[in-house]
Every structure is written in C-alpha cells, then in structure tokens.
User: What shape does this take?
Amino acid sequence: MTIRKSLWLPLALGLTLSGMTHATDPTAPTSSDPNLWLENIDGTQQLDWVKQQNAQTVTKYADSAGFKQLDARILEVLDSNARIPMVSKIGDHFYNFWRDKDHPKGLWRRTTLDEYRKDQPAWETVIDLDALAKAENENWVWHGADCLKPDYQRCLIALSRGGADASVVREFDLPGKQFVKNGFELPEAKSNVTWMDKDHLYVATDFGPGSMTTSSYPRIVKAWQRGTPLSSAITVYEAKNDDMSVSAMRDNTPGFERDFVTRQIAFYDSETFVRGKDGKLTRIDVPDDANTDVHREWLLIEPRSDWSVGGKTYKSGSLLAANFDGYMAGKRELTVLFEPTDSTALDGYSWTRHQLILNVMDNVVNRLEVLTPGPGEWKRSGLGGAPKLSTIAAAGIDADTSDDYFLTVTGFLQPTTLYYGTLGQGEAQAIKHSPSFFDASKYVVSQHFATSKDGTPVPYFEIAPKDLKADGTNPTLQYGYGGFEISLQPSYSGSVGRAWLEKGGVYVIANIRGGGEYGPRWHKAALKANRLRAYEDFAAVSQDLFARKITSPAHLGAMGGSNGGLLMGNMLTLYPQLYGAIVSQVALLDMQRYTHLSAGASWIAEYGDPDKPAEWAWIKTFSPYTNAKAGQKYPPVLFTTSTRDDRVGPVHARKMAAKLQQLGYDASFYENIEGGHGAAADNKQSAYMNALAYTYIWEHVK
Assistant: This one.
C-alpha cells in the first residue's frame, strides 16, 4: 500500500482528487478586468464567444487538405490495433482499457497471461463504454476501477461526463460483468472512495455545504455501510477548510491489514495516520513534506528536505527504509536505499513480493536496481540495460504473490518494447513490441546542456535529421513543462514523428528547473518566488539552439500544456523575441485570480498566494495575463483548452486570448467542448487537438 502525494492530480480511482468548477468569486474586484465575464464557464453568451473563436481558428488552420491528412495520420497512430495493450493484474486476469476506431469511448477488457503473451490475444469484454454511454445517453469517459482484494469480486467504477475530473462512482460485480443493483453509488463529485471490506467504504466526497475545502476537494472522510443512506455514514476525520483534501484507505494485504487516513495539508505537505480498530488515529511521525509507503512489514520514507533524525541527517530526495512496527513504536533505525548525487535522482520504485525495484535517473536517463530486504544493508543488483538516451522502467505485477515484473524500454526513436520477467530467474523476455509510425533511421538523438542566467547547466534533448545543416533555418519545436517535480524523459511518439519530424523539423525537450529531473532540489529551485528560473532555463535552451545554429527566432516555436502552458504564457510576455510562434495548452495564465478558479487554490504550494500582498509582489512577475501589454512584438500565439476542464479550467485561456486580441495581437483560440484537463475525451478529439497545435506552429516557423 503506497501513500504518495500527487504531483499534478492523478485520475486513478481510490487516489483520485477529482475536479469541480468553482463559480466566479463574488467578492473579487471587477472594474479592472474587462474580461471577467468570460469566467462564467457555461453561460450562453460566453459559449457563443467560444464558438465564434473556434470557427475563426478552424477556418484559418484546420480547413485545409493538409490539416485533414495530418489529423487522419495522427488518429491512425492513436487508434492503431498494433499498439501495446498495457495491462494490470486483478485476481487471475490481466485487465486493459482500450480505445480504437470501433470503440472510441473504449472497452474495459481482460485476458489470461498465456493469452496475453500471444501476438493476438483473445480478449473478454467486461465493460463496453460505448454501449453503456449509448444506453444511458451520457458521454461517459473512463476514470478507472478499484477492485476489492483478495477475492476481487466487486469493483468501484468511476465514470466522468465529458472528461471532467469529477466522476460518478458505481459498484460493479466483476465475475458477473454487471453493475450491482442497489449497490454502492455516488453522484458526480470530487470524490476519494476506497474499499474497507465488501460491506463498507471510506468515502470523501461532497456531503453538502461546508464539506469541501477552499481547493474544491473533499474536507471530510466517512465510513459508509452497505444498505444505509450516505447521510448516515460515520465521520472518520475532518480536515481544515484551507487544507487541500482528505482521504482514507484500507490496506487489505493478507496478514498486514491496516487503515490509513491522510490529511493533505497542501500540495507537498500532508499528515498520514494509522487508524486503529477503535477509530483512534496515530500519526506516522515523518516530516510533512515526506512521502511514505507502507508495504507489509516495511515503511519507506522519501524526505523532500534534508531530515535530521536519530542522530543522523538524510538528504532531500533520499529513499529510507524502516521496520514499520518498530518505527511506530519509536525506533528510528533507518536504512538508506537511495541517496541522490549531483547528477542522479530517484524516478520511482515498485515492490514485488520479496524485492524492491528502484528506477534511478542519471542526467535524465534511467537505470534500474533490485534491492532485497534484509537486516542492515539491503542486497543490491542491476536489472537490465537500455540503449543510450532512452527510458527504462520496471514494475512488480502482483506484490502480494510473486516476484514477476513488467519492464518497458522506449526512446524518442525507439518504439516501446514490453518485457516480462521474474526477479532472480534470468533475463526478462520481450513479449510485446509497439509498431514504428515513422522512419526513425533518418534521425539522431543527442543531449546537450545550456547555461542558464545564473550559471546552472540545463539539459535538453534534441531529435533532428541526420543530415541537418547548422545554418539557423531549421524549423524547430521546443517543448517544456518545468513544474510539480515532473520529469520529461525520452519516449516514443508516433504523433511527433508524423507531425513534426517527417516534415523536416527539429524537436527539442527542455529539462528545466521546476521539474523532477534532478529530484526535489531541481523542483525547489524554481518554486514560488524563484519561479522565473524555470523561464530563464527555457530561454537559455532556446539561445543555445541559436548559438549552435540549429535554428533562429523566426524558425523556433514553443509549446507546453497545463503548468507548461503557464510557461508558454511567460515565454510570450517575457521573451517574445526568441520565438516565431507559441502554443499554450490548458494553461494557467491569470495568476492573480488562479486561486479562485477551478482547483487553483490547491497549487498555492507551487506558486504562492496572490491574495497576500507580499507574495503577489513576486507572483505578478510570472502572471502572463497581468503582464501582457500594448506595444510589444509578441509572436503569434494559439491557446487551446476544454470547457470540461474542471482542474485548471478554460477561463485562463479565454481571458488571455481576449486580452491579446483587444491589444491588437495575433492570438488564436480553440476550446474543445469536451475533454477535461487532457482537452480530449477520445482519440478522435486528441488527434484533432494535436494536429491543430502542430499545424499552427509549422505554419509560422517553416
């Protein structure tokens, strides 16, 4: 059972922090913001504005034969039946959620391991989401399943209307492949819901007025018994109004059954408690910013700040192990499983029945280690190898019963290969290969380091034609994110290959500060008042591309989404001279109002609180909506978003596009009515949104 803090907002049921749209803050001043009216997300006048903007953008960029061909070719990648169907083990079967041309909403299906090893497995459909959506006249989007172990007879199924984070939850009979009549059911809300046993759930949801935090997530978690109304559920814990959220869960590992309650104080700070049978809560005594993982007899701790305990100091970004019962009894005997260096960071880990797989990044390139628990130092060994500048990752398949694992290897020019193995029983065997969607033999991958404004080396990956001429005229697309300790690593994309590389373009991934490429220190270096460092890093990569004569401002485009969309907004307003065009996707942009829009208050730990004058003093330096002004040489910019994005919300993009247009700039806008924070509810929508973004950049920098 892993208790880990989210880096953005994951959509896995049971660890879900699902979004809900905030109404406009009625106390906010309106006179200084002529575009405040666009914050009414579903208003008729506002949606008419959206439709008008969409029509203009489609006419200009998505109405040509070339666009339609690219759209179709990207959809072919997304719908390909040759893709690897990634699976997870539930009971005796392996489950996969699958979308293709014939099943745009998707199938939740299962097969056996023997079948899965075959080139063409025989799949058994468990839920046909297209059929369900048609029968219920709802645009259902799959949000996951949480099945009760060890018998796996019942599951909780989460479904979203149109792709929003908010979900409805229904109980499902897995052997019978049908929803349970009069079973557990929750209406659409931001919910954290997990099994206690077959007749009880832990539920954190919208219980009515006062039950949600200012971040728009559940404030109260309750224990709910089958056959009783939700209103009679017993309160387990109440968080504070200004906390981020609360949740509870039961670890049903046989022999190690334990209940946990987590109070998410802020994005990176939380308290986790063990809940006794009498309901008493005992806090796991670790720093608030540490991640914890309880697996059988072991407690793993990831401190995000240097931590002194038991007479020793452990580095930020380390992974520490202790006996759980001993630790709860007051012992502080910790074993260091990983300690970061200047070039390394922990990318993740996964348990098997008897061992722990570590995924380590060294200058953003992976290696794997296998650790075997024992008294004192744990035994170490390597696991597999990967080609240069690629990504290798491994995860246990069933930590309760076996040391089996899946391993994937992928790279910018290397389609993913899936391996299956058992620790201690020789090398893993390749069982699935993703197809190639473009001719990779024409290109080469390289890694470079730019020097940022403060002297920090910033790594970036470049994918370019082998016969590239360094004459400064190559159309180049630079992508970045730079937030929430999320790393951008080598991975294969048929869409990038077809939409950009095949046209002769150069593709660049910038590993800027704010991300997790070098662990917590890389993230904290661009946190809050230091946010500008992320933008200085991205600019440094651009300038290094110019110095190397790969491209020039007229031929360089930039793209990013979500927090990366905020990055794009700042490259527009702070470094407009560096780019020929920019695409900002599902972005935060109005940093003065962001805490009052959708789930914005949950990210105060990342950006700061603009309602505090001392913090607004530095937040305003990276608020694109605030800083956009007349008389600048801004490059053309496209903002894309989704009406159903209840995480960041469409308001930011609407207002930014409107303001720039009012100032006389070339600003285009497209809002998908469906899609949530991913801006697409199915493969067809995803292909269209991607084709639009790539076409826009190419038209301006070719």
Summary: The domain at 445-690 is CATH 3.40.50.1820 (Rossmann fold). Confidence is low (pLDDT under 50) at residues 1-30. Residues 683-701 form the longest helix (19 residues).
